[in-house]
Amino acid sequence: MIRILFVCTGNTCRSPLAEAAARRIFADHDDLHFASAGIAADQGAPASNHAQFVARERGVDLGAHRSRVLDADLAAGADLILTMTRGHADAARRMLGAEARGKVLTLAEAAERSRPVDVDDPIGGTLEDYERTNEQIESMVEALRPRLDALRAGAVRGDD
């Protein structure tokens, strides 16, 4: 089982949307497990209403989602930790120490974008803001296919 952990700030918008997108896009891969957490999450908060709506439009229900804080236990169980921004990646590396550093990348880095791209934060925005952010996330999650295929084949362990 390959475990991918998506990380944002509060675990109510971007990382749950990334988790939802990954579950939908890679639904045919039962050896992939997706989860999410936040650098500064309030433990147990639901996904935002707009995030739930956007995910539901794409066939994924975030109604049961509850936020959780990124910690060493979650990190230790992940093969790859994908953050929404460079700031999240830096914070995760500082928080988690040497053991997790090699497996922390931004979503854009993992998707091999030509330049670093932070995922826009839609918090407090309109439904259209959430839809734009979700499109950005879905594009990058889809681009993870080669990296996840390599992980699945055992060629890469998230630290290349």
CATH homologous superfamily label: Response regulator
- Tell me the total number of β-strands: 4
Structural class of the secondary elements? alpha/beta
CATH level 1 name: Alpha Beta
Question: Over all CA atoms, what is the radius of gyration?
Answer: 14 Å
Largest sheet: 4 strands, parallel
Number of helices: 8
Strand content: 5-15%
How many separate domains make up the residues? 1
Global morphology: globular
Query: Kindly state the mean pLDDT as a whole number?
Result: 91
Poorly predicted runs of 5 or more residues: 155-160
Q: SSE string, helix = H, strand = E?
A: EHEHHEHHEHHH
- Amino- and carboxy-terminal Cα gap: 19 Å
What's the arrangement of strands in the largest beta sheet? 2-1-3-4
Query: Residue share in helices?
Result: 40-55%
| CATH architecture level-2 label | 3-Layer(aba) Sandwich
Reported by name, the CATH topology is Rossmann fold
Structure description:
- By secondary structure, the chain is α/β, with parallel strands linked by helices.
- The protein has one domain: Response regulator (Rossmann fold, 3-Layer(aba) Sandwich).
- 44% of the residues lie in helices and 13% in strands.
- The chain contains 8 helices and 4 strands, in the order βαβααβααβααα.
- The chain has helices at 14-25, 49-57, 72-76, 86-96, 98-101, 107-110, 127-142, 145-153, and strands spanning 2-8, 32-38, 80-83, 104-106.
- β1 (2-8), α1 and β2 form a beta-alpha-beta unit.
